[in-house]
Amino acid sequence: MQKTAQSKRDAEHNLAIKTVLIVDDSRLQRRIVSALLSKLGLDVLEADSGSQALDICNRSNPDLIVSDWMMPEMNGLTFCRKFREIPGESYGYFILLTSKSEKDDIALGLDAGADDFLTKPVNAAELRARVLAGDRIVAMQKELSEKNRLVQSTLCELQKLYDSLDSDLLEAKKLQQSLVSERHKDLGNAQVSLLLQSSGHVGGDLVGYFPINDDQIGLYAIDVSGHGISSALMTARLAGYLSATSLDQNVSLVSNGDGSYSPRPPAETVADLNRMFLGEIETEHYFTLLLAHVDLCDGVVTMTQAGHPFPSVQRADGTVELVGTGGLPIGLVDCATYEQFRVKLDPGERLFIHSDGIDECASPEGVLLGHEGVEKNLTILKDIHGTALLEAFVWNLSSYAKKEEFDDDVSAIVLEFKETAKLV
After folding, report:
1. What tens digit of pLDDT does each residue of 360-395 get?
2. CA–CA separation, 80 and 21 (whole Å)
3. Domains of the chain in sequence order
């Protein structure tokens, strides 16, 4: 009665092992082992040789193999090695039947790929215990395989999502770059050139210029905190406030009522932007800004700096001066006030405005380029002008960082008064 109850419990046991292959050249031995394993509720297959067993294994994937060691033509060790070479996701637990018990023999079996051993004649209780031990291994392997399949399936879905996002971001990058439609503009007495290079698909930097009237233009450089999509969306919105195509929406200008416009003081415009940003836009972002109005007739540039890096003026003799008054970034402090300052550019002189992605560019040793590095590069490149200057500057920056992709967005404006300019 006790044995019958145990057999029922074994049959009802939810084993991960479902199919077992018995390999033995002895028909009687196969029958004995088959009868014992059938009581565990397993599907039993039989093979009288290693070659026949390999044919079965190539067609199906038995969860458990019980193979005799000593067989003609192909012994159990050789069969085990060949079995382990069969590709497949599932793991077959391999038990060698043997009368050998020496440690060297066991080592040979383990090297061949066997998991466990049973000595002949087979004891029913020991066989059951070995099978249940193997079942735990097979169960863990099946669970792991299922989790791997789930992970692989998830990764495939994520890859599809990533590919879709990547495609969208590439389009977003094109749109953001289109905000800087002209990278170079000849203004008669002067010329202006723009650089915008995001560290990722899209970034938080933006540079641009807008006409004020026949004799004046506006320049702006923006750097929104953070990186990625939300920063890029913010730059797009800010570009609308300083639009070059819809001057009636440009907060830096005042309509004269006759279709013409006059510039507002940059400090006043920046203060208004700070109030608008804190009052109308719900975001964790803030941004730095340098806003400039340029008089093309006399070379006077009026600027307000709101947390943006100090601009540089390069004189005709090549010397470089750092200018600016500092100022708080926009979107941090309510009712912040801002100052404005002026510089006068003579023929052959230029103004260099840049984001912190340039002066905070680090060497492999972690040393920042800094103001000195900006000055050094401008001095080296004093005879190069326009977009060629900006391209050369980025090349030098890449050499300094020892990499082509930067950790932060890189943007700049260079305003140059021509040597032939006739200023009043």
Report:
1. 999 999 999 999 999 999 999 999 999 999 999 999
2. 12
3. 2-147 (3.40.50.2300), 179-417 (3.60.40.10)
